[in-house]
Design brief:
It is elongated and about 75 Å long. By secondary structure, the chain is an all-alpha fold. The chain contains two helices and no strands. The chain has a domain of 34 residues.
Length: 73
């Protein structure tokens, strides 16, 4: 086998070159992929089992707010 720059012998096939992969950050410093990340306060987060429940509650709040604005006019 051919040794790379580090001198470690590798059994990985050449077509599986992992040097081009990027390391993903974990935690608040990582980038989001295709969406916006919102951090909920612990007391709020305990009321919602998952992100779909949060979205459903916010959509309901948006509908109610729009109805109140239309009825005030």
């Amino acid at each position: 086998m051919k040794k790379d720059e580090t001198g470690i012998e590798d059994e990985l096939r050449p077509e599986y070159d992992l040097r081009s992969l990027r390391v993903r950050k974990v935690g608040s410093g990582r980038k989001s992929f295709g969406g916006v990340n919102i951090r909920l306060e612990p007391d709020v987060a305990e009321m919602f089992p998952d992100s779909e429940a949060v979205n459903e509650a916010l959509r309901f709040l948006i509908r109610i707010t729009k109805q109140n604005v239309v009825s005030e006019k």
